[in-house]
Every structure is written in structure tokens, then in C-alpha cells.
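Appendix B, Record 12. Input sequence as logged:
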Amino acid sequence: MRFYVGSSFSNIEEVRFMRNELIALGHTHTYDWTQNERAASIDALRSIGEEEVSGIQTADFVVILLPGGKGAHVELGIAIGMNKHVFLYDLGDQMMNMKETSTFYHVNAVQRLEGPFNALPYQIQDRLKLSSHV
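Logged structural output:
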């Protein structure tokens, strides 16, 4: 299946880990924003944004790693709106902290993941297998 991973630049190593592990499990990455430098102009932002939107549109599932910035939250919204499989994992305590959480982290369309970070690719793989048998 095709996938996209959204997060923030502060989580770039975790995003790369997730990308590499999901590829090793046979999935295809739709767009790797971790290869970009921080945008220095509006034109660069637009170009990157178009690539990210396309990456989400062509993905079968989207992984969002919290904490995320504005972009990750827009990506989450696009994925929910397009009825993608959405997996959410919190590297901090944003998801369950009432001062930091978002209503959209808790909608039925979002599958919240827990447990050790290095086990997440296998959790995702298992949940995708279960959803294909429903």
C-alpha cells in the first residue's frame, strides 16, 4: 500500500525511521518531505505544499506523528476528509493532554497508536490487514 508520514521538522528522525520501516514491510512512500530544506519563500512553500497534498491524495494510509506543527494538522485534516486510513502516534503527551489535544485526534476515523515507537510499523501493518478482512 502507499503511505504518507506527516509530522514536524523536530521529529524528522522519527519520520525517517517510520518511512524506512514501512518501506521494508513492502509499502510505497508517496512523498518524502524530509528531503526538503525549510522553505525560504512563498513560491517554495507553495511547491512543497502541492507535493505534500499530492502525497496524501495518492496514499492509501497516512501516519501522523505528534507533536506536529500547522502543516501536520492540515495533513491530518486532508487525510480525514479523503477517508484515508489515518494512524496517529504521540511522541509526547499532546494527544491525551486536555490543554494540547484536538477534537480531531479523537474522531472515529483516526486510529490512535500506543506502545513502543519501534513497534508502530508492525501495529500499522496488523491494523491494515484487519481492515482489509472487514
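The mean pLDDT is 94.
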